[in-house]
Write a structure and sequence with these properties.
The complex is a heterodimer. Chain A contains 11 helices and no strands. By secondary structure, chain A is mainly alpha-helical. In chain A, helix 3 runs antiparallel to helix 4 and helix 5 packs across helix 6. The longest helix of chain A has 38 residues. Chain A starts with a helix and ends with a helix. By secondary structure, chain B is α/β, with parallel strands linked by helices. Chain B folds into 2 domains: 148 residues, 3-Layer(aba) Sandwich (Rossmann fold), CATH 3.40.50.300; 73 residues, no CATH class. Helix content of chain B is 35%, strand content 16%. In chain B, the strands form 3 sheets. Chain B has a 6-stranded mixed sheet, with helices on both faces. In chain B, strand 1 and strand 2 form a beta hairpin. The chains are: A mainly alpha, B alpha/beta. The interface between A and B is medium-sized, with 21 and 25 residues.
């Protein structure tokens, strides 16, 4: 990475974040905003440090339930996406149900999940899964549907079976779509896990924030928000790195620029 | 063979009869839309015929043939595979290679084939790192790697510039001479057809019919210089007359 690249990719985002916090701090101090309305970053970070142990414990629960839900969503979404892309009949059969299902706000489903599985991690995992598999299905199916027939002809002329064509052309061709959808799905899974914790749970960042809010510990609520934001960025960056690793061929234009 | 259904169906090819001997190089020329490509899709088995018979090596064609190698106007290389892996693709599909396929076993074969068409330094490059001509060379290698009985080329040089095209003519000429493979070339470039083929078939359009079978009397292998000689020009001129509808009379 040369100097200019470094400035663009590292210094610029870092400077922006620092600037954001400084502005926030200045505004809070200048207008004397009450702690219970909007705590200044210094108060938030103080709370973050003071309650680091419970925050870390609860973050861990949120993180692993998110990842578990996301993992299930990835496997299920990929399988269903391939099924939907396999044949038009499966596509038209499943799609209306999928859309209907996706339209149901997942907050409304959490009480049912709690009823079935009890309080604990399982409703959070299930919510994370339910909210995040849809974009994966849609993207994989789109990738398969937009595969150039000419590429398929190459294999068909060789007498390849439908399964061969799927393995050699369809699936590699839709990988960029698949990995692209993972970036959306991981963020959604995170939202799902936290929503579920907020509706009813005994652990997790969502639960911690709910308790802090009830006790008017507003700096802890904001500390929770910051942790969520940081975790969200890290998870997104991880999926983006995996995407770049596996589908570099689809992003060649950017590498040359 | 027809496209579409019922009354609206377009009869693309009608009463086409041609024979290709083993090791022969034939070219099919005709105006655009005359069914050249349809004919090729029939022979390759990508399309089933409506009526009549189609036999390759004495056996009726029911589906795509394993003894056929095909290259298209676009190279259609898979963008996520490098040149070698693209060339190896048919071996992952076609028996008997398929059952014992391993990259190590056949990599050398693919590499040699790419070398023979002048892609020595580019075997590990991805398609977007290759020029159009190079992509087309790799595409022809891919059509040949599984040692098909017949090589079907559907306007393989149509998208290339004139100089690259002539270069690839020579590459194809040498490849065919070395491997003695039977070739059927579909093209709308008469010079290309006459330069490369033993026999040129001229098709008319809608429905496509063979209107002339013309054996090219020039000895093979031919040098590119041949294309500037009078006998060559005469053949091209004669074929041009058969295609009709000359622009500007």
């Amino acid at each position: 990475m040369d100097k200019r690249e470094f400035a663009i990719k590292v210094v610029s985002p870092f400077a922006f974040v620092v600037g954001l916090f400084v502005t926030w701090e200045v505004v809070c101090k200048a207008f004397n905003v009450p702690l219970a309305i909007l705590p200044a970053p210094s108060d938030v970070f103080a709370a973050l440090w003071q309650y680091r142990k419970p925050i870390a414990d609860n973050s861990w629960v949120t993180l692993w339930t998110t990842l578990a839900g996301f993992g299930i969503a990835t496997a299920f979404g990929l399988a269903l996406g391939i099924a939907v892309g396999w044949h038009r009949a499966i596509y038209s059969g499943i799609y209306p149900v999928l859309i209907g299902f996706n339209s149901v706000p997942k907050v409304a489903v959490v009480p049912v999940l709690i009823l079935w599985f009890g309080l604990g991690e399982i409703p959070a995992i299930m919510t994370a899964f339910l909210i995040s598999f849809f974009p994966i299905v849609v993207n994989v199916a789109t990738g398969l549907a937009t595969t150039e027939p000419e590429l398929e002809d190459v294999l068909r002329a060789l007498g390849a079976s439908k399964l061969d064509i799927m393995r050699k052309v369809g699936i590699p061709r839709s990988l960029p779509y698949f990995f692209g959808s993972l970036k959306v799905a991981i963020t959604l899974a995170f939202v799902g896990a936290v929503v579920s914790e907020t509706v009813g749970s005994n652990k997790g960042i969502g639960k911690l924030m709910l308790d802090a809010q009830a006790a008017f510990q507003v700096p802890i609520v904001f500390a929770g928000l910051i942790v969520l934001a940081v975790l969200g960025i890290l998870l997104y960056a991880a999926t983006a790195a995996i995407e770049a690793r596996f589908t570099g061929w689809a992003f060649r234009g950017q590498a040359n620029r | 063979m027809a496209y579409g259904r019922g009354a609206a169906a377009v009869r693309a090819i009608d009463e086409v009869s041609l024979e290709i001997a083993r090791g022969e190089f034939i070219a099919v020329v005709g105006p655009s839309g005359c069914g050249k490509s349809s004919l090729m899709r029939l022979i390759s088995g990508l399309h089933p015929p409506l009526g009549g018979s189609l036999t390759v090596e004495g056996k009726p064609v029911a589906g795509p043939l394993k003894s056929v190698g095909m290259a298209f106007q676009n190279s259609n290389l898979l963008p996520w595979r490098n040149a070698i892996d693209n060339v190896l693709l048919p071996l992952e599909i076609v028996e008997p290679y398929r059952s014992d396929f391993s990259r190590q076993r056949y990599e050398e074969k693919a590499r040699n084939l790419l070398h023979s068409v002048g892609l020595a330094g580019f075997t590990d490059k991805h398609p977007w790192e290759l020029s159009g001509g190079m992509q087309q060379r790799a595409s022809i290698c891919r059509a040949l790697i599984h040692e098909p009985e017949i090589l079907l080329l559907d306007e393989p040089f149509g998208a290339l510039d004139a100089f690259t095209r002539e270069e690839l003519w020579c590459a194809l000429r040498d490849l065919q001479a070395a491997r003695k493979v039977t070739v059927m070339l579909v093209t709308h470039d008469l010079r290309e057809a006459v330069f490369l083929a033993d026999t040129v078939y001229v098709m008319s359009s809608r429905p496509g019919r063979i209107v002339r079978r013309c054996a090219v009397p020039i000895a093979r292998p031919r040098d590119l210089e041949v294309t500037y000689t009078q006998p060559f020009q005469d053949i091209v001129h004669e074929l041009r007359g058969l295609i009709g509808k000359k622009a500007g009379g």
